[in-house]
Amino acid sequence: MDEKDRENIALFRFSLIAPLLQGQVASRKAYLESITARPHEVPYYGLCDYSPQTIASWLRDYRREGFEGLKPKRRSDRGRPRALSPELQEQLLALRQEERSCPASVFYEQLVAKGVILPDAVSYATIYRFLKSRGLLGREMRREPERKRFAYDTVNTLWQGDVAAGPYLRVGNKKVATFLFAFIDDCSRLVTFAQFFTSEKFESLKVVFKEAILRRGIPQMVYVDNGKIYRSEQLQLACAALGIALINTKPYDPQSKGKIERFFLTVRQRFLPLVKDEHLKSLDNLNRSFWQWLEEDYHRQVHSALGMSPLDKFMSQFSQVKMVSDPAVLEPLFFKREERRVHHDATISINKRLFEVPPQFIGNRVEVRFDPEKLERVLIFVAGKEVAVAQPVALSVNARAKRESKLSFASLQGGGQN
After folding, report:
1. Residue 190's closest CA among 286, 67, 317, 103?
2. Longest dimension (CA), the chain
3. Element containing residue 360 per DSSP (H, E)
4. Which residues have a Cβ under 8 Å from the Cβ of 267 and sit 6 or more positions away?
């Protein structure tokens, strides 16, 4: 089991304890009994059954050690193979969307006929349980979900997040598309942060989410759609480290995020008509005008459902907001995580750039965490702990570097086995 497997298992465990951690269940006993009444498809291990005591022990581990406490202890065995790999699960979900009304038994036969699965390796019961757990059985897929209005009583209990198409910039003779990323607090309807970008990539989402947390505190839950950037490992790990339950909507169900969709409608109705040609000459101009409208208009208008403005509602409960104690700690939580083998000259390569690490790591595999957009900080982790900061290679200095014993690397692993 490598570090990536341990992180994926920890993320799965966090998803089960998050409602308990955030106090979102009426009865702890009833919740534990309900989630242990069925088997779970677990990264690395496959289909597993758990007892309420096991789930409760994960909660204790998280409260004592944080996200690291949810990772399995290092073992010498290689574990059990999963019946359905992550790649196969993605393929099954895509194929199921093409055959939405097909009975599960017929769908299984089609998978075998197409060579997607082998009947000796994956049984019909496994496929049936997988489809049922995702709400993808025929009758479930045709049923319209029941929708009830809801709102949390406390600010920062739940944020809704999404991205919407913005106006086109006019740069020279070109038209450049923009995208508005935003998060909104469910209780107060205050927009914790929003910004226009010319890219829909994860970097845009990261900027907005980090700024929202720095400005408005740490939410208990974040509700986003099923898009690739919202399912990214970087976002999942960052939320888990902060104690945030990340909840993804079901595919093809944008209506479930009604408050953020309503905000985007307000932007189209009340902000975009105010946009002038000079605002569209650059992204900075567009964002400056948007932020001014957001703070002076949207946040200060009395909301009909609240009886006060979103800003007043949020500030009335500000004493309950949990702020980030050290902003410098927030940035590394969103770093990309990869493994590298340290070369004989004590260097590693990241995005075609060489970085130097302490020589005791020569010949060993280490985890590196970095921002792929900037590469300003490259952190070295061993056994989930930061042990060094990699430096850009200075060839003249590297040529004179003394080589040290590798014993210190073993001690950093705590005597565990890979």
Report:
1. 317
2. 70
3. none
4. 164, 180
Residues 6+ apart with CB under 8 A from 163: 179, 180, 181, 182, 200, 204, 205, 227
Q: Could you tell me if residue 149 is inside a domain?
A: no
User: Which parts of the chain register pLDDT below 50?
Assistant: 75-81, 140, 142-149, 403-407, 416-418
What residues are paired with 289 via a beta bridge? none
Contact (Cβ atoms closer than 8 angstroms) between residue 145 and residue 208: no
Whether 12 and 47 have beta carbons less than 8 Å apart is answered as no
Q: What string of DSSP letters covers 381-406?
A: EETTEEEEEEEE--HHHHHTPPP--S
On whether residue 152 sits in a domain, the answer given is no
Distance CA 88, CA 92 (A): 6
Q: pLDDT for 363-387, tens place per residue?
A: 999 999 998 888 888 999 987 788 9
State the number of CA atoms in the 13 A half-sphere of 86 facing the CB.
9
Name the residue among 397, 385, 398, 396 with its Cα closest to residue 342. 398
Q: Residues in the chain, how many?
A: 418
Domain of residue 368, CATH code: 2.40.50
Indicate the SS3 state at residue 72.
coil
Give the position of tokens 């049936």. Answer: 128
- Listed in sequence order, the DSSP H helices in 22-85 are 28-35, 52-65
Q: Which residues contact 288 (CB under 8 A, 6 or more apart)?
A: none
CATH number at residue 284: 3.30.420.10
Phi–psi pair at 174, nearest 5 degrees: -105, 150
Q: Is the backbone of residue 348 left (phi > 0), alpha (psi -120 to 50) or beta? A: beta
Question: What pLDDT was estimated at residue 84?
Answer: 82
Task: Flag whether 137 is in a domain.
Answer: yes
DSSP code, position 342: P
Residue 161 CA to residue 230 CA, distance in Å, equals 9
Residues 63 and 95 in one domain: no
Quote the DSSP letter at residue 153. Answer: S
Other residues' Cβ atoms within 10 Å of the Cβ of residue 192: 24
Distance CA 262, CA 393 (A): 50
Specify whether 306 is located in the same domain as 179.
yes
